[in-house]
Amino acid sequence: MERSACGPDTIVLENVVELLQAADLLFTSGLRCACLIVLYSSIDIMAWLFCPETEHVNSKRAFLDWVERYLLPGSRIDCSPLDVYSARCGVLHKFSAFSTLTRAGEARPVCYSWGKAERSDLEQALAEKGIEAAVVEIESLIAAVKRAVDRSFSAVSSDAEMQQLIGARGREFFGGVRQGKLREPLFPPGLPQESG
Question: Which residue ranges make up each domain of the chain?
Answer without folding.
Answer: 11-182
